[in-house]
Structures are given as C-alpha cells and as structure tokens.
Amino acid sequence: MKMLFPTALSGLASVALLLSALQAPLASAKKNTQPAKTAPAAKTGSGSVAYADLKSHKVALPYGQPFTITGDTTEVQVGGNALKDVMQAQTVAGDYTTSDGNKGTIAPSSITGTSWQVAIGKLAADTSVTFNFQLTGTLLAGVQQTVIASMMADPAYKAATSQFISAAQSKDSVAALGAMTLLSQATVDILTSILNQKGLTPKTPADLKNSLGPVILANIEPIFNLTQQFPELRNPALHVAELVGTDVSALSAQQLYEKLSGLSDADYQAWKSKSKQGDAVRNAVKEEVKRFKDAYRSVLAALNTGMQSVMFQGSSSLVVGNDQQSDLVSDLKKYAGFDVGALYAYRISELRSFAMVHIYFGPIDSKTEAPLDPNVKHPHWEAIRQRVSLAFGIALKDLSGASQSKISGENAFVYGVGVRLNKYFRLSAGGMLYRTTLPAANGTTSPANGALRQEIFVGPSIDVTALPALKSIFAKSQSN
Description:
This protein is an alpha+beta fold. The chain has 15 helices and 17 strands.
C-alpha cells in the first residue's frame, strides 16, 4: 500500500471532477430515497441546543466539544402529563448513554422560574445518544391529596396498617418495632407505585422509609389506648358478637371497625328487641362501640397526618420526574467515498492497483453499525442502501509481476458496484475498459492492437475518506 497511496492521491483532482459531474443525479437519488421528514434546523446557538428542538429532532447536535441544553419546565412531559401539572420542579439533572457504550452524567442544575440549563460533555462522533433528564421537586397540593387518598384506599396499605395495629396492641416492643418496619416499607412501596403511574418516583425511597419510622413509633401510644377497648367489646355482657353477627375475638381492629361502622340505629333496635334488653343496655353497648370507633379513627388520623408530613414536606418528600429524549449524533453523513485497493481481472490474469469514487444512493452513516432512522418506511431497503454504492475510477499499476501488460498506457477505466463490509473496508466488482497493447508478430502489428476491450474484475479496497484526517471529504455534518 505504500506504493499505491501516493499514486491514488495523485488522481484526486480527476476524481473530484468526476464527483462534480455526478452531483446532480446524486441529489435526485437522495430526494427519491430519503423518507419524508423535517430538515434539521441549525444549532440554537454557539454550543447550545434547545430542549424543544431536541424533542422535535430539529437540531444538529454538536460533537467533539462540550455544549449545553436549555429548556423550560412547561415543555416537559412525564408519564403522559405536563410536568407543571404534577410538580413544582426545583432542579434538573440526568445522564446519557451512547451507542458506543459510553455513559455521561448531567450535573444537577437549579431551575430559575421555569427555565433550566444543563451542561453536556463531549459526544463521540457517529453515535446514537439517549438523554435521560431527571427533574426533582415537590408535588403540587392537589396531586398530594390525590396520592394520599389513593394510598389509603389501597388494600395493601389497609392490610399493613391493620397488621401494625394488631402487633402494637400486643405491647411486645420487638413485635411492634418489626411491624413498624413492615408498615414503613409497605407505605413506601405503595407510594412509589402510585407515583409511577404519574411518571414520578420518590427521590430517596430509603430516606423516606427511615423518616416514616419515627412518625409511626410516635403514634404507637394511641394504639395502646385502643387496646383497652377490645376486652370490653369482647365481654359477653355487651352482646357485641350478637350485634355484628360474628365472633369479635377473631377479628382484627380494622375488621371490627368496618363491622361496627356499618351499624345503624335500626340494627341496635332490632338487636334490643331480639335479645329482650332494655334501653340502658342498648345505650351502653352503643356508647362502647362509639368509643372504640373514635379511638380507631384517632389512630388512623395520627398515622396518616404524620405520614403526610414526611411524604410531602422536608428532604424525603422530593420526587423525580423522568423524561427521556433520543437523537442521532452524526458528525458526518457520507455522500461518497474515495477508495484505494487492488483488483483482479481474471481473463488477462492481472492484479492491478486502483482508485475509485463510490457514490451512495443518498446520505449514509459513517458507521455501518449505526442504528437506522426509526421513521424510515422500508428498513430492509435502507439497510441495503447504507452499504451499496456505484463506483467509478481508474486502474493503475500492474502488481502481478507480468513482463508486459496488455493494457495500453498502464491505465484503465473501471466501474461497478461496491459493498461496504464495515466503516473502512469494501468489496467491489464490475468492468474494466482499456485499450490493448499487443506485441508485433513477424514484424506485423496485430490488427487487434489498440482495440477497446472490457474485462470483469473483483477486488477489496480501503475507504481512505473514513480515516479521521480525511473523513470530511464527500460528507457533511448532519443529525437525525
């Protein structure tokens, strides 16, 4: 290749003329083969990209240099909802991943009013990149009420609360603390599930769980007070079992509360008539039931109020809205490639160096493994288009060691089709046109001497315009 490379570059001027002649049909091919889409807009500023342009894929992302992304919280959607409708955002951070496997961190940045700006590191060329923006803040008051109502209506939360109350009533500190831990975890899990439905997550679930512990512990005392109600309700003299129609000793506090809450004055009157009790007994039972229900409601209120104070105030109350945006960072969309290589013409048994320009059917990604545009209508054709090219060039010096070449002037015109094997290597096949040089026989020049002939060739080559120093030839910056 040391002998071929200078020779190939010496023909670069003629190659450029050839490319110019083919520019018009190339533009037509590009127009007919590209899927309809909005053309990329210019960069929003020097080293700056607008979040709105990123979302709509109307921006050419910078590459090889740090830049910033600027946006407004009114433009952000989380979980199908406008961010401004679910939370008051305070900071924005995040991360990004490229198709090369490289990862970067977006440092936290404060939000001023509704405006935000984050710094992005250098993005590698020819890569697909996915940005994950994380906006942190507090839930709006209306959303807080919706979340707490959903949590308290959740069967898992009711079961966890009932289990905790039952354990605390045993006055066994070990059992009470164990139940407290279970209730804290259950509350965080349920809260996380509800927030996920809105496209949100708790910022620090572990901190939230730890913060709930003291709140729950502080409300164990009202639960102990509730314990005093059970023996009285289980007293056969009150006939509560007959009143609710079941054995109360087998019920949890929650189950008993639900049973007693469903009683009406008519139920008390019917029980009095059936048991042949007087008004004094009926009123005593009714009062005892009321005391139990009041005590149970006090316990729930204390727990719920304490939990709300932790979940919606302080550092453990912060929630995160995640918003993911993707784009293709492509420093070069190639329209053509300049190759040097060796071809073999089997009929004349010659191995020759060659230099060719490969014209693509529209712009292609520099990397063969680059992800295809998701909006393309015919992905199979697009995959072929990304690899196949028309080839035109010249065959140069004979490398086969023949004493005399059959090609006049050592040069021939070659044409055909190239297939990219990867970013740098290609395999080409086609025809070679040349004038013959035939030796005289018995002092007589052959009538076939100087005739125009064609041979079939095949040969590998290297796309020198894929090399970093030359890759801007036949290409331009473009982002999908």
